[in-house]
Amino acid sequence: MHYQLTTTTSSDNIQVQLPSSKSISNRLLLLNALSYSPYEIKNLSDSDDTKAMLGVLNSNTNTFDVGAAGTSMRFLTAFLSKIVGEWTLTGSERMKQRPIKTLVDALNKLGAKIEYMEKEGYPPLRIFGSNLEGGELELPGNVSSQYISALLMIAPTIENGLKLTLTGEIISRPYLEMTLALMKDFGVTSHWKGNVITVPEAPYQPKVVTAESDWSAASYWYEMVALNPSIEVTLKGLKKISLQGDSQVQHMFDKLGVKTKFSQKGTTLTNTGKKPGRFNYNFINEPDLAQTLAVTCCLMDIPFHFTGLQTLKIKETDRINALINELKKLGYQLSSNDIDDLKWDGERAAIEQEAAVTIDTYKDHRMAMAFAPAAFKYVNLVINDPMVVTKSYPNYWDDIALAGISFIEG
């Protein structure tokens, strides 16, 4: 299936209720389970990832398929390793290509027994849940923050807690800070000094909690306002002081001419017309924003150099190469060291403006959402596999119709 995108006139001021953060929702679900909470989480995400997590936690079987849900795979690997029983945890074909060895090795050092059912170092996993013994662990700081968050959340529930030393450069730090802040909400105070995080053995306390709206989802609205100066957008449910590292999007887009104003009615985005000559940024803390910014900068003719992208190669797809491939279809010649950077120096190849351009999404929700606003610039844009957006933002296509981007299904 694909969507042929067209643009129409939209209202001057668009009001959008953003989806709940799946990053926060999935952490809250695990902490709710670990605290044996009787309370339901308010404003829980309706994303595929959160549904996958909820499905496992509410299941009475011992075999679980989380599909493409990366957070669910990592968090549940840790959770099930301490729940007595024999468990099978699998996912989509892409999930079977996403490494999990660092987390499995760490859990096995704590006394877990986890086996690979197919390829060494990758799901599916057979987990023999048992009592875990804490103590000291060392982990590279440049691995997926989801591995580290998974260990941190179970740490108070294992014997002696955990003293975790992160070696080298620490990436996606805001996600770790989010995890520790939510753990504190459930009554467990940790200590982070230098590169050492100490979590004591302590009982979680049940609590009534509400998930924030999603700053990552907000990034696509910033992109739309940057590309279409005639629209003003008010986003509902965002917190100015947020646990989400992706709230930094407001400062990034300020440099690209989008002003953010917080008020009781919501977060209002307007275009100021400001445009830099170049945009360089280290995405070490906000890797999920890289696709939005890459597409925006290209369409605004702003050369850029992005660094800190090492985790992009093990996301839903290899996002660095996916961006290079798909932006090339729009004429933009990007380059990368194929490790941790992405660069565009302004080089373009001519393309026929009226010709159809089909964007492949690689089963990656952020590819679909980052490229859809390009419809403001390209009159014949097609998005393949558009419903991949349900991974994090199920109402995305209905919402962007408010901004004047509609679709014909094909």
From TrEMBL:
Q: Which reaction does it catalyse?
A: 3-phosphoshikimate + phosphoenolpyruvate = 5-O-(1-carboxyvinyl)-3-phosphoshikimate + phosphate
Instruction: Give residues annotated as binding 3-phosphoshikimate.
Output: 22-23, 27, 144-146, 172, 288, 315
CDD domains of this UniProt entry?
Answer: EPSP_synthase
PROSITE patterns reported for this sequence: EPSP_SYNTHASE_2 (PS00885)
| A single MF term (Gene Ontology) | 3-phosphoshikimate 1-carboxyvinyltransferase activity
Report the EC code(s) recorded for this entry. Answer: 2.5.1.19
* Residues that coordinate or bind phosphoenolpyruvate: 22, 70, 98, 146, 319, 366, 391
User: Where is the protein situated, by its record's location annotation?
Assistant: Cytoplasm
Question: Where in the numbering of this chain does the Enolpyruvate transferase domain appear?
Answer: 15-58, 62-399
Please tell me where this protein is predominantly located. Answer: cytoplasm
Its pathway, per UniProt, is:
Metabolic intermediate biosynthesis; chorismate biosynthesis; chorismate from D-erythrose 4-phosphate and phosphoenolpyruvate: step 6/7
Pfam families named among the record's database cross-references: EPSP_synthase
Write the record's keywords in alphabetical order, separated by commas: Amino-acid biosynthesis, Aromatic amino acid biosynthesis, Cytoplasm, Transferase
Location of the active site: 288 (proton acceptor)
Family, similarity comment: Belongs to the EPSP synthase family.
> How does the annotation summarize its subunit structure?
Monomer.
Instruction: Describe the function of this protein.
Output: Catalyzes the transfer of the enolpyruvyl moiety of phosphoenolpyruvate (PEP) to the 5-hydroxyl of shikimate-3-phosphate (S3P) to produce enolpyruvyl shikimate-3-phosphate and inorganic phosphate.
Q: What is this protein called?
A: 3-phosphoshikimate 1-carboxyvinyltransferase
| Gene (name only) | aroA
